[in-house]
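Quick question: what would this complex look like in 3D?
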Amino acid sequence: MARELLILKGDIIFTPMLGEFAIHENSYLVVQCGKVRGIYQMLPQEYQGLGVEDCTGDLIIPGFVDLHTHAAQFMQRGFGLDMELLDWLNHYTFPEEGKFQSTDYAAKVYALFAEELIKQGTTRAAVFGTIHQQSNCLLFQILVRKGIGAYVGKVNMDANCPEFLKENTSESLAATEKLLCEWAGNTLVKPIITPRFAPTSTGTLLAGLGEIAVKYNLPVQSHLAENLSEIAWVRELFPGQREYHNVYDYYNLFGQTPTLMAHCIHLSADAISCMARQQVVAVHCPDSNLNLTSGIMPARKLLQAGVRVGLGSDIGAGHSLSIPEAIVKAIQLSKVNFLRDNSQKPLTLAEGFYLATKGGGSFFGKVGSFEEGYAFDALVIKDRADLGLSLEERLQRFIYTGEPSQIHGRYIAGKKI
Ligand code: GUN
Ligand code: FE
C-alpha cells in the first residue's frame, strides 16, 4: 500500500497544460494515500515534524508514459529495420512472437522488458502481449510484481498470419474474456482489448472484441494507418468500409470505449475529425515511424484538430524504451513536417513533455501531472543544480542528454519502486 503521507522536497516541474510548465523551485510536494495533496514553498503547519524525503537540488518530474509498446518484441529491437512494416512482420516479428508459446521464454523476456521500463523512467505503459494465454498471464504477474502501472493486452489474430499465430475465432474471444475476468479487479495492471490490426482479424473477431469491450467497458488498443501497403490491404480486405478507421468504428473499437490507436500517419481529414469527435487517442511512435520508413505522424495537425495525442516506444519497430528519446524525436519530426508545410508549427519541448506525461497519462485517469488529486507517479533526477541554470533549462538538458543512471527515485501511485 502507498504510505499515507509522503513529503518530498526538491525542484518540481511538470506540465498542467499542453506547452506550459509549472515550476516550483525548492518546494515541498505532499502526497496522501498515493495522490498529490499540494505543492508548498513553506511546509504547512499540519505537516511539520513529519519525515521529509530531502531531494534538495534534484529535479522532481512526473514519470513517463509509454502509450504503445510490444513486450514480446523486446529481444527483437534493432532487427530487420531495413524492411517496411509488412515484410518486417513476416520475417521477424511473427517468428519472434511465436516463441511466446514457451512460458520459460516469456518469463525471461518479460522480466527483462519490465526492468528496462523501470530503468528508463517509464511508470505507466500500454502493452501488447501475444496470443498466448499463459505467457500473457506471466506478463500481468511480472508487471504487478514490479509495481508498474499498465494496460496489458492479449493480442487477437485469426487471419492473414502464419498458422502458429492464427487463433480459432471463438477460442480467441473466449480466452480474451477469461483473461480479462481474471485481471479486471487489479488496480495498477489492467486488461485492454487488443486486436493486432485490421488485416490479421476477421470481421467476426472484430465484432466479438467490440462486444466484449462494450460489455465490460474495457479500453481498446490497436494500430491504424501506419504504412501505405497496409492501408491498401485493408481496403482490399474490408471493401465495405470507406476507410481504415471505419473498420474499427463499425465494430465498436473506435472510441465507444477509451481507445488508443498507434501511428495514425496517413489519415484523411474525415478520419482525423472522427478521432477528435470520438476521443480516440493517437499514439505517436517516432522511432517506429522512421525505422520502418512508414512516414511521419502529423502530430501538430492532429493536435490542432482536437485529437488527443500521446507518445509510444513501439519496440521492436522502435529500438528503445526511452520516452525522453521519443520526446526529442517527436520534436525533431515535427520540424520536418513544418519544413514541408509551414502551417504545422514545430512541437516545443514543453509540448513534447506534456505528451509524454499528462497527455498519455490521461488514458490512465488522473496521471502525469502534480495537480491536486493526481496519482503520484514521479522521478527524482540528480543533476548539477549548482551551475546557475534555470529549472526549465535543467529539464531540457535532461530530456536531450540525460542518462537513466541520473534517475535516483521512482514512484508509482505514491509507492517507491
Ligand atoms: N501493425 C501490426 N502489428 C504491428 C507491430 O507489431 N508493430 C508495428 N509497428 N505495427 C504493427
Ligand atoms: Fe506497434
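Answer marked as accepted. The first helix runs from residue 85 to 98.
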